[in-house]
Amino acid sequence: MNRHLKTGLLLSVILLAATGAAWAGSASYGAAAAELAIAKGSPLAITDMLRWAAEDEYLARGEYAAIMQRFGTMRPYSNIMASEEQHLSWLRAEYQSRGLPFPADGSGAYLIIPIDLKAAAQAGVNAEIGNIAMYEAFLAQPELARSQNASVKTLFEQLKRASENHLRAFQTQLSKY
Asked: Which of 97, 126, 128, 140 qualifies as a FRET site for 161, CA 20 to 30 Å off?
């Protein structure tokens, strides 16, 4: 993995910790778990990458639900929460096509509700940066070059593009504060 990708992942984790953001995460869940595995430099298994992707989508959905419960339903959280549902649907379909059980949502144990809307927007920015870095690292895995994994590669490319769109939305939101 290249040095810039590792640096991006590390900075995401540091930023999350520094902001007290909703994506507090755990080293054993979502992008934080992926980041630790990626840092080891070992090839990643498709099943692990799919699990971490699902966990990260659960974390995003949980964060937006918590933010809207605390501060009221508003954009971009309501729109992006609907996107997260679609992403989970895509992941469910991939799991189903592979005959794998879809992971349960365990994100509630890892969420911390932001203290205000500025912190919520910053949490979104930080999470999407980490999410993009995670998908870039996944897409660099040799396992995805195999023809039997073409659908996973396409899925991760879609999810990365969605994260890039979400990042822009959260950056716009953050610029309002």
From this structure: 97
CB-CB neighbours of 92 under 10 Å: 13
pTM: 0.83
- Kindly state the tokens that stand for 177: 């504060």
- The number of beta carbons lying within 10 Å of the beta carbon of residue 9 is 25
Cα 25 from chain centre: 10
- Return d(Cα 42, Cα 24) in angstroms, integer: 25
For the stretch 125-162, what's the b/e string if a residue is b when 16 or more beta carbons lie within 10 angstroms of its beta carbon?
Answer: bbbbbbbbbbbbbbeebeebeeeebeebbebbeebbeb
CB contact at 8 A, 41 and 15: no
Q: Give 3-state DSSP helix, strand, coil % of the chain, rounded to 5.
A: 75, 0, 25
Homologous superfamily (CATH) of 3-174 is Ferritin, core subunit, four-helix bundle (1.20.1260.10)
Distance in angstroms (rounded) separating the CA atoms of residues 35 and 49? 11
Q: Which helix (H) or strand (E) holds 50?
A: helix 46-71
pLDDT in tens, 162-177: 999 999 999 999 999 9
How far is the C-alpha of 156 from the C-alpha of 133, rounded, in Å? 11
Q: Is pLDDT at 77 greater than 90 in this prediction?
A: yes
3-state SS class at 60: helix
